[in-house]
Amino acid sequence: MGKRLSVTITGRGFLPGVTAIDLGEGINVDSLSVKNPGEIQGTIAIHPDARVGPRNVIVSNPGPGGGTAMLGDAFSVVAPVPSSAGMIRTDVPDQPLLVGAYPNPFNNAVTVKYGLSEPGMVRIAVRNILGVEIAEILKESQHTGYHTVRWASSREPSGIYFLQLVIESEASGKRFTATRKLVLLK
């Protein structure tokens, strides 16, 4: 099938023997275990032809009183999966990208994951619904690869915010900008 990975999904209302997840075309859920009402652990297999890019996670509890939730752009397939033809390096993305911000919605803190295809200056800021910058999370030169940063929003009220990632390549001067909506629930 392809590369196998262990995954953990956090949330609430997960039911043993009932809760199911769907990660989209090209990704099979091999095993699934509800550890507690807030955590699912499982093993997935990513097919070598799986589409690269942001993916949604669909979590469902079928049956009476159940429901379905879709977590938009919850994760990304960032590079083709190695096939029997040879290994593909996956620790450096082909292009700069904002992998995601999780959990989203969040309560007090959110983790941002992003990737640099070449060294560059990285700036991550948060803006409120009016577009006013309320926090500069990061501003520094970073090497290629994947990075994470965490924002603790202890002073901000519940609401909608926008995370802005700007990466400027040190070599080429190219500029990459991505924005992601964040929902803060306290």
Detailed description of the structure:
The chain has 186 residues and is mainly beta. It has 2 domains: 75 residues, Immunoglobulins (Immunoglobulin-like), CATH 2.60.40.10; 88 residues, Immunoglobulin-like, CATH 2.60.40.2550. The strands form 4 sheets. It has a 4-stranded antiparallel beta sheet, with no helix packed on it. It has a 3-stranded antiparallel beta sheet with strand order 1-4-3, with no helix packed on it. It is globular, with a radius of gyration of 18 Å.
Which descriptors would you attach to this protein?
Immunoglobulin-like, 2 domains, 4-stranded antiparallel sheet, 3-stranded antiparallel sheet, globular
Number of domains: 2
CA distance, first residue to last residue: 42 Å
Return Rg in Å. Answer: 18 Å
What is the name of the CATH architecture of the largest domain? Sandwich
What is the topology, as strand order, of the major beta sheet?
A: 10-9-12-13
Question: What structural class do the secondary elements suggest?
Answer: mainly beta
How is the main sheet built? 4 strands, antiparallel
Strand content: over 45%
Secondary structure: number of strands:
13
The chain-level mean pLDDT equals 82
CATH class of the largest domain: Mainly Beta
Shape: globular
- The helicity comes to under 10%
